[in-house]
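User: What would this chain look like folded?
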Amino acid sequence: MTIFVSIIDVKKLKIMAEIAENKEVFFIDQIEEPKDINDIIFNLMVDPNLAPVNYFNDFSEEVFDVESVANGETDDAGIFTSDNGQMMAMTTHAFHHHLETDPKKATEILISRAARRMACYGVKPEAVNAFLYHINIAHPNGQFIASGAKQGLENASKKFGVKISDRKIRFDYFSGHGAVTPTIIISMMGSVEDKDKVITHKLKKKGNNIFVIGKSYDDISSSEYLEFYHEVFDSPLPVFDIDMEVKLNALMKQLIDKQLISSASPVGKGGLFFSLLRAGMPSGLGFDITTDAEIRRDAFLFGESMGRLLVGVPQEKEDDFVDFMQSTKLPFFTLGHVTKGEIRIDDESLGFIDKMIPNVE
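Assistant: Here's the prediction, encoded as structure tokens.
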């Protein structure tokens, strides 16, 4: 048995070495830092993954109301009430980037994204199931992906205290299909412990402060910006630290319990800018923000490095919020404030948020 395991491990190492040798190494310096942020924004607005209006997700719609959820009238945020009166939540995420090169880390990122979304709503993650498919069982790399994804699923679930309710692998690769990218899909279920403490990503009030919890990096790897705007499809996974993700989830629970924040959302698809846009559209509120002079503007606004949360803080609670955050020793910084509708970046106006929503009949 020991000899067999060793042989498998050697094969995995050879596979990883072969893949790494054949891949081009990407560095952010290969992309010239753009001068026109407006051009990037309006090009990314037609990216199907970021477009404000599409067939399945209209970011401009009003977000859910807690009372209407309790009455079973809406499921906009994946929050619902079961027959026994328990308020629950579910979120589903898919990932295919780098499953062939680093399936463990890729799966941990996917679980962390789901857990972050739950935490930002004030929901406790309870269970997860995973479906790995498009695996070529005839190739040793198929077993390498399955083994790595299994490790990532188990490690991330343990870190976040989530039960694995089900996992499946579908070996449905056939040569007639051509090249099919291996993909993993996870669904996470969570429970709402106190419906009065459920919050949303929606910006609440003009003048509220906007903070980022976490660090910004010169990182655009695997981002919609890099792939859609620059058409660079082969780059590393974004910056990621699963231990920091766990700390941020625990921190979010404290912030909600102490009622120090009015809104929260993870920095996700499209980076900081599009996360803010999704937060502002439901209420028609804009934002006035300042970028970090030590970070490239495109990385600051559109990079998708992990470990960052956007929170809205009422003006009257700003001092208490800052005092509490300083006591945690976790990184955070002031990003800007909520406006009546105008979008401003580094004192430059990009217009008003209602103009960002296509007029779809």
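The radius of gyration is 21 Å. If you want, I can go into more detail on any region.
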